[in-house]
Design goal:
- This protein has 378 residues and is mainly beta.
- It folds into 2 domains: 333 residues, YVTN repeat-like/Quinoprotein amine dehydrogenase (Methylamine Dehydrogenase, Chain H); 28 residues, no CATH class.
- The strands form 7 sheets. It has a 4-stranded antiparallel beta sheet with strand order 1-2-3-4, with no helix packed on it.
- It is globular and about 60 Å long.
């Protein structure tokens, strides 16, 4: 099974993007992490492959300085059975020289597979969310000697939920998690939630607030770069479609719902991401569509463009650090797109053909005057 889950690194040398290939971790068909040089998005070059990992790779993250790469490895619903069972782990490499990565640490402690991972903005902490109602924090100030700070286990009375996304506030004092409570989607406990935790003392996290998504399936979320807004996916329905809720978390102890952004899909939204300047929001759906919105004013999002035709379910999206490109991962491929409006329209026209109807234009393109001939004057 192949998943294309992507993240970007930008440093003074080049852009790098990561693609994951998820094997079953058995019989020699292990997973792999591929590192690409995407300095020229039109012609990315494979740099190296971190192969034969012991289980499926569920998430990856670069440290802010680009020197470390972390991967969450593990089988869903498969608890670790002993200290020697390293199937469910977080692997960390030094990728300061991307062509010659060095394995520096293996982090354990989550009861089940890690499904999300993130570095703090200062690079000193690593957070991971687990499939089995767990999240953990590690100090990685010395990557070769990581220190486990806390793990909130299955059944913790404050958490008690699977953690599908993790993110830090810009000052590293708040941890955001997207949590799927036990029984989500049932009448007893129908809502997934986004939780904010005070980690000023990372060894003693305390809950701040929780926001309901009304989403019965695993929810995904993203925090804006300035830390003032959080976006989380909502339950699709045949009548209303999917949605993304935006909250103001300027006061992390009292989140305020700003708006609900309706998304024209009845399938799951698998990923959501803010651009580095916080002005654009992207969603990736199981319907194979990438949707971009202008969220300069979070209370009034404006659609920009909708892309379909990737051929597979979209599983992940990630903006480059300068915001000039976006990586979109489907079942087997990472697609790189320019994010300027004219470039997006040109890419859309490439998929549709030389002629585009008014109906197609109205469905896919927003904020650009209609032109029947793709490419003419755009």
């Amino acid at each position: 099974m192949a998943w294309a889950i992507v993240t970007w690194l930008r440093n003074r040398h080049s852009d790098q993007t990561v693609k994951l290939t998820r094997g079953d971790g058995k019989g020699g068909t292990g997973s792999a992490v591929r590192l690409w040089d995407a300095a020229d998005p039109a012609d990315p070059a494979l740099v190296t492959i971190l192969a034969d990992l012991p289980g499926p790779v569920n998430a990856v993250a670069f440290s802010p300085d680009g020197h470390l790469l972390a991967a969450a490895v593990g089988d869903f619903d498969s608890p670790m059975t002993s200290d020697s069972d390293l199937t469910d782990t977080i692997r960390v490499w030094n990728v300061a020289d991307p062509a010659h990565p060095i394995a520096v640490a293996t982090l354990t402690g989550l009861q089940y597979a890690a499904v999300s991972v993130a570095f703090s903005p200062d690079g000193g902490l690593l957070a991971a969310g687990g499939d089995g109602d767990t999240f953990g924090l590690w100090s990685v100030a010395d990557p070769a000697r990581p220190l486990s700070l806390v793990t909130l286990p299955n059944g913790d009375e404050e958490l008690n939920s699977a953690v599908w996304s993790v993110a830090f506030s810009p000052d590293t004092h708040v941890l955001l998690i997207a949590a799927d409570p036990p029984g989500a989607g049932t009448t007893n406990n129908p809502q997934s939630i986004v939780q904010l935790w005070n980690i000023a003392d990372p060894g003693k996290p305390t809950p701040l607030t929780a926001m309901n998504t009304d989403y019965g399936d695993p929810t995904v979320m993203a925090a804006s770069p300035d830390g003032l807004t959080v976006a989380a996916t909502g339950q699709p329905s045949a009548s209303d479609g999917g949605y993304v809720r935006l909250w103001d978390i300027g006061d992390p102890s009292r989140a305020v719902l700003v708006t609900t952004l309706n998304v024209d899909t009845v399938t799951m939204l698998n990923s959501v991401a803010f651009s580095p300047d916080g002005r654009m929001l992207a969603t990736a759906g199981a319907d194979g569509a990438l949707r971009l919105f202008d969220v300069t004013n979070p209370a009034s999002p404006v659609p920009i463009v909708t892309f379909g035709g990737f051929g597979n379910e979209l599983q992940a999206i990630s903006f480059s650090r300068d915001g000039a490109a976006i990586a979109v991962g489907d079942g087997s491929t990472v697609h790189l797109l320019d994010t300027d409006r004219a470039g997006l329209v040109r890419r859309l026209c490439t998929g549709i053909g030389a002629t585009i109807t008014r109906k197609q234009w109205a469905e896919y393109v927003h904020g650009v005057p209609y032109q029947s001939r793709c490419g003419s004057g755009i």
